[in-house]
Amino acid sequence: MNVFCIILIVFFEMLTVSIMINKQIEPYLLKLKKPGRYVGGEINSVYKNKEDVDVRFAFCFPDTYEIGMSHLGMKILYSQFNEVPYIWCERVFAPWLDAEKIMQEKNIPLWGLESGEPITDFEFIGFTLQYELSYTNILQMLKLANIPLRSCDRKGLKQIVVAGGPCACNPEPLADFFDLFFIGEGEEVDLEVIELFRQCRAEGKSREEFLYLCSQIDGVYVPSLYDVGYNEDGTIASFTPKEGVPAVIHKRIIMDLDNVFYPDKFVVPLIEIVHDRVVEEIFRGCIRGCRFCQAGFLNRPVREKSPETIDRQSHLLCRSTGYDEISLSSLSSSDYTKIRELLTMMTEWSERESVSLSLPSMRVDGFDNEILSKLKSVRRSGLTFAPEAGTQRMRDVINKNVTEEELMNTCTVAFKGGWTAVKLYFMIGLPTETDEDVLGIGTLAQKVVDAYYKNENRQKGKQVKVTISTSSFIPKPFTPFQWEPQDSLEDIRRKQSMLRGHITSRKIEYNYHEAKVSYLEGVFARGDRRLCRVIEEAVNRGLRFDGWDECFDFDRWMEVIRDCGLDPDFYVTRRRAFDELLPWDHISYGVTKQFLLSECKRAYENRTTPNCRKKCSGCGAVKYGGGVCYEKR
Amino acid sequence: MRSVRVWYKKHGPCRYISHLDVNRAFMRAMQMSGLPFWHTEGFNSRMYVSFALSLSLGFTGENECADMKLTEDSADNEYIIKRLNECLPDGIEIFAVTDPIMKPAEISFAEFEVLISSDHSDPTEIQSKLIALLGREHIYTEKRTKKGDLKQVDIKENVGEYSVTAENGSVVLRIILPAGNNLNINPSLITDILERECGFEISCDVKRGKLYNNKLELFR
Ligand code: SF4
Q1: Cα separation of A599 and A371, whole Å?
Q2: Going by fewer Cβ within 10 Å, which terminus of chain B is more open, N or C?
C-alpha cells in the first residue's frame, strides 16, 4: 500500500510540474483580452523535463496566438521536433498590445508556452515567415525576449535565430537578423542543422564554425557569409560568397509525401482560433502556373499524397483531437487526381463519426454536384471563386486558365443547387492592365447576377448576392512578374473608384484591399539588405503588427524609410531590367530564370501556357526526379 | 437513452478560458472519447451537452456540472470519468458522474470563496473595510438586466451566510450568493465596490463551490 502511495505521489508531482503558466504574467492575466492566449496547457501540447533535453527550440510565430495556431507548417514541425527525445520545442506567439505593454512595464521576458520560461537562452529561436507585414513582429519578439537583434551581436552556441517559410525565398530584408534561413521544405533539413549543432557543441566549436558548416548543408542559407555590393543607382552590383561557401543555395524538397513525417496529433487550442479544424495536406505545388502566384512556382513540381495516406492520417487526427471537421488543403484542391476515390473512402467513416469535409481552394472548373454532395461545409460557408481578372485577355496574361463560360456554368449549377450567394476574388494592378480590364470585373459580376435570374427554379422571394473583392497585385520574387512595376497608390485608388462607379446593381457588393497595405508589402517582397536598417528603425519607433488596422501606420513607415535614406518607389513601382542582378538571384527553387523570363514574355503576348498535366513546359523542376513531371500524359 | 450529470473542476490554464471555450472543449472531448453520446437532431446535428450554470472567465470552479445523454446504457460511470478526462485539457477535470436528480433551472444559490490581496495594503485594512461593507443595511449597485438596461439592486438583500477571515496574507471571503436563472449576484460586484472604497488596486481570486436550490439544499 505504501509503495503504491509513493508511486501515486510521484506521478502527481510529474503531472503538476508539467504545465507551467508563466509566473510573472499570471497576476496580470485577467486584465488581458483573451488570457487563454498566454497559458498553454492545450490537449496534445508537449511537456518535457528540461533536464532531459539537450536543445531547447522556441518556435515563434510572429503574429497572435489565434493566427499562429491555425498554421499547418507550425503543427508539423512542432510535432516533428518533439518526436526527437533530446529536443524540446515550445510555441511562442507575438503578445497582443495589452500583454506587450505589461511585459515591458514589468520586465517580463517573452516565454515559451509550454515551460513558461523565458526563451532568452534557448539554443534555437525559429520563426516562420508567412507574410511580409509580420517582419516587425519578429524583431519585437526578439526584443521582448532580450535577444540581440543582429546576428553579429549574438555570441556562443545559443540563440541561433533561424527562419523558414514562403517569405524566406527573399530573405534579404531580414538578412542581418537571422543566423540562417531554411530554403524550401523544412522537414528534413531542420533536424540536420540541430544535429550538427549538437555535434559542434560537443566538439567545442565556435558559433562561426557552426554557421560555416551549416552553409555546407543543402537548403541552408547563412546570410552573413555573403557580401553585397551596390551600384550607384541602388541596384545590386555583386553578391559574393566567402571562401568555400556555395554561390547558389538550392531549395530542399520532399518528393515522397506518403513517407514524410506528418503529425498524428495537433495541439488543440483552448480558445477559438481562425482555422479550428483538422488540416490535411493532400498535395504540394500546383500544376497551373498562374503567373502572379508565388506559391505555385516555389513549390514545383506537384507531388501528391496517396488517398490511403490522406485517409489514414486525417482519421487519426480526428481521433486525437476531437475535431469534427477536416479541411483537405492544397493550392487547388480540385486538381487532386484521385479526388473521387478519396472522398468515397473518407465519407465511409466521416459520415458515421459526424465529421464534415471541406475542400478550400476549388477551381471554377473543378466543381460538380457529386463532389459537392460530399462536402457539407460548402453549404455553410457559401461559394467562393477566384477568377482573378475581369476579362479573358487579362486572364490569359496571368495564365489563369478559366473561361467566362466555365464560371457561368459553375454559378448556374450552384444556383440550381439552391445557393444564392457567390463571392468572387480579383486582382487589380496586373501587368498590361487597361481600364477595360478593370471594368470587366464589374461586368462579369453583373453576368453572374443575370445568370441567377435566368435560373427558372430559383427560390421565390430570395435575392442573389454577389460579393466581389479586389486585392492589389504585388509582384513577387520567383514569378514571371518579378521584374514588373507595382501600381502606385494613385493608380490603384483610381482603378478602385472607377470600378465602384461602374457597378450599378444593388445585388453586387464591392470590397477592396487598402492600397497602402499592399504598397508596404511591396517594399519588402522584393527588398534588399538595406531594408534591415529600416525594419530595425521602424521597430524602435514603435511599429509592429503592421498587418493589423489598429497598428498599421503608413505615414510613419514612409518617414522611417526616407529617414534611412531610401526611396520606397525604388522597390515598389520601379520596373527592373531583365538583366538586373536581383536580391534573391543566389537562391534557387528549381524553376530556371529563363523559364520565368519566357513566361513573362508570353504574358506580354497574351499567350497562355498549358498546365503541367497537359504538357510539360520545361520549367526546370523536372530535376527533382518525381511528381507531376513523371506522370503519364 | 440515459442521462448523466458530469461533475468537474475548472482551474489551471482553463481558468482563463470563456464558458463558450469550455463548451467546445467538452464537445471535442465527447467526440474524441468514442463513447455513445447522443446527437441532437436536425441539419446541424451536434453532440448534446448542456451546462447547468456558466462560469465567468477567470473564476475557478470546484463543483461545476453539465448534462449529457448516452444512447446505450453500457458505459459505467467510472469508465466515463476516465475516458473523458483523457480527452479533456488539463484544467478541466471530471470527478463524478451521477444521475441527474434536480433540474438545472432549480439552481438558486452558489457558494463562493474569494481571495483578496493587494500590493498596496496589508490584509487587516482590507479585512476591516470588507467587514464594514458587508455589515451595512443596504449595498446598492447597478446591474445590467437581461434586456440590457441598468437596474439598481441591493446586494445586501440577497447575501446569504458569509465569513471574512485573514489567511496567509490574503483576506478570504466565503459567501453564498444568488446564482441561477432568476437572479445572479456575481461576487465581483462586491469586490468592485470594495476596490472603489479602498482607493487602491486589489486582486481577487474567485472560486465557485457548491450549488444550491432555493431551499438551500445541495443541487444534485
Ligand atoms: S518540369 Fe514540366 S511538368 Fe515539371 S513542374 Fe516544370 S513544367 Fe511542370
Answers
A1: 33
A2: N
Question: In the prediction, which pLDDT does A18 show?
Answer: 55
- Residue nearest atom 4 in ligand 1 by C-alpha distance: A629
Q: Are A400 and A387 in contact (CB under 8 A)?
A: yes
- Find the CB nearest A322 among B12, B31, B90: B31
The pTM score is 0.92
Judged against a pLDDT cut of 90, whether residue A377 lies above it is answered with no
Which residue, by CA, sits nearest to atom 5 of ligand 1? A301
3-state SS string over A147-182? CCCCHHHCCCCCCEEEEECHHHHCCHHHCCCCCEEE
Comparing CA positions, the residue from A138, A13, A12, A125 lying closest to residue A63 is A138
d(CA A333, CA A116): 39
Sorted by where each starts, the structural domains of chain B and their CATH numbers stand as 2-100 (3.30.70.580), 106-212 (3.30.70)
Contacts of A321 in chain B (CB under 8 A): 28, 32
> Which residue has 488517398 as its cell numbers?
A307
Closest CA to B23 of B1, B53, B44: B53
With CB atoms and an 8 Å threshold, state whether B20 touches A272. Answer: yes
* pLDDT in the model for residue A381: 52
Instruction: Tell me if A162 sits within 8 A of A219, measured CB to CB.
Output: no
Q: Determine, for residues A268 and B28 on separate chains, whether the beta-carbon distance falls below 8 Å.
A: yes
What gap in Å lies between CA B93 and CA B86, rounded to an integer? 9
Whether residue B87 and residue A322 make contact (CB cut-off 8 A), yes or no, is yes
Distance between CA atoms of residues B26 and B20, nearest Å: 10
Q: How many CB atoms within 10 Å of residue A342?
A: 23
> Lowest-confidence range among A336-350, A554-568, B114-128?
B114-128
CB of B40 less than 8 A from some CB of A: no
Indicate the residue type of A267. V
Grid coordinates of B189? 460586484
CB contact under 8 A, B13 and A268: no
Q: Apex CA A338: angle with CA A337 and CA A343, to 5°?
A: 135
Of the partner residues A41, A320, A321, the one whose CB lies closest to the CB of residue B90: A41
> In degrees, to the nearest 5, what angle opens at C-alpha A124 toward C-alphas A154 and A32?
100
Nearest to B21 among A21, A29, A270 (CB): A270
CA dist B29 to A467, A530, B49, B65, B94, Å?
37, 51, 11, 15, 12
Distance, CA of A315 to CA of B31 (rounded, Å): 13
Categorise residue B99: left if φ over 0, alpha if ψ from -120 to 50, beta otherwise. Answer: beta
Q: Give A180-195 pLDDT, tens digit per residue.
A: 999 999 889 999 999 9
E strands within chain B? 2-10, 49-51, 60-70, 92-98, 109-117, 140-144, 150-154, 162-167, 170-178, 203-212
Residue of A284, A612, A632 to test ligand 1 pocket, by largest number of atoms within 8 Å of CB:
A612
The ipTM assigned to this model is 0.89
CB-count exposure of residue A30 (10 Å: 0-12, 13-18, 19+)? middle
Where does CATH 3.80.30.20 sit in chain A? Answer: 278-513+590-622
Contact at CB, B13 and A41, closer than 8 angstroms: yes
Class of CATH domain A278-513+590-622: alpha beta
A98 within 8 A of A32, measured Cβ to Cβ: yes
